[in-house]
Predict the structure.
Amino acid sequence: GKHVMLEKPPGATVAEITPLAAAAGASQRTLFATWHSRFAPAVEPARQLLAGRKVTSVRITWKEDVRVWHPGQAWIFEAGGLGVFDPGINALSILTRILPGTLLLREAELSYPANCETPIAARLLLTDLRGTPIRADFDFRQTGPQSWDIDVETNDGRLSLAMGGSVMRI
């Protein structure tokens, strides 16, 4: 009987989501599938600012401590647990909101802990259709301050999103 927000992703297949959508419709409740990071306060202003600029490169640094965010939770490194892509998808959700167009994964280096099925760290090289270089570094081994930053170089200077899209610096 409650409205529901699902994220990261709401299911592995469309078949897994169909019963959820049917249940929401039958109970006249909202089923909102989204990524919460897209709603961070600086994301929309960044998108609007970048719409009028030529992006020349992007650097994502998304590093957090799995022991802080998922203490003792083995599921995060089991099949389907997403590993470092659990926080990394937050960065990608912001990236796909602030940059128009299609992104292409060109190269990936994944680091797996022993006896785990999902990565603890990832380095991704992406481009958009214009060939703009985009580098993403995700790491679940961060200690101390956590890093949730996206730096965008443009023809008119740098735009930085910090603290998971909460702060914008130009």
Strands lie at 4-6, 31-33, 55-63, 103-111, 121-128, 133-139, 147-154, 157-162, 167-169.
